Amino acid sequence: MTRNDTLHIVYPRQWHLLPMVLGFFFMLILVPGLRHHWARLPDNAGAWLPFALMLGILLAVVGTLYRNLLFRDTLTIVRGEGTPGQRLTCFAGEIVSVRRLPTPEPSSPAGKWTALGLGQGLIEIRTADACFRFGVGLDDYALDATTERIAAFCGLQWR
């Protein structure tokens, strides 16, 4: 397989200030509380529930920070057939349509998830079997250019 037979796109990291600030403050509150409850666990059997809840919240905060600071959405499309053992997103021949979804309003549920850095991408790739969403972290201009690039690679008409 040549380089022209594979389209590999790595989207930029999303930098949302709100989840980073909230995550920092939650960690400032939770870490000392976890240390305090950890010291009381052997003496008090009822301290397990608050400890488990705080640990769950801390894991959710760490997941949100990972999604905002380190996560990069990637897309790989291959023309023709893949090699055995190759991990693929999809084949170009199986893609039926590519479209750019509208940007959600900030007051909508999807807009609120996006503000927290947990939203889905706005590029929808539909195959006969499934529908994939990509493009987390792209702005409006990059979304249009990327959608056009994917459609051109797959031989689809866009717009």
Would you kindly provide a written description of the structure presented here, covering whatever features stand out?
Strands 1-2-3 form a three-stranded mixed sheet, with helices on one face. A three-stranded antiparallel sheet has the order 4-5-6, with helices on one face. A hairpin with a 3-residue loop joins strand 5 and strand 6. It is elongated and about 65 Å long. The mean pLDDT is 81. It has two domains: 92 residues, no CATH class; 53 residues. With 159 residues, the chain is an alpha+beta fold. The chain is built from four helices and six strands.
Main-sheet strand order equals 1-2-3
Number of strands: 6
Structural class: alpha+beta
Average predicted local confidence, pLDDT = 81
Radius of gyration: 21 Å
User: How many helical elements?
Assistant: 4
Q: Main β-sheet, in a few words?
A: 3 strands, mixed
Order of helices and strands: EHHEEEHEEH
Question: What is the domain tally?
Answer: 2
Uncertain ranges? none
Helix fraction, binned, reads 40-55%
Morphology call: elongated
Write the layout of secondary structure elements.
Elements: E1 6-10, H1 17-40, H2 48-69, E2 74-78, E3 90-91, E4 95-100, H3 109-115, E5 123-127, E6 131-134, H4 140-154
Parallel strand pairs: 2-3
Antiparallel strand pairs: 1-2, 4-5, 5-6
Helix pairs in contact: 1-2
Any key phrases for this structure?
159 residues, alpha+beta, three-stranded antiparallel sheet, three-stranded mixed sheet
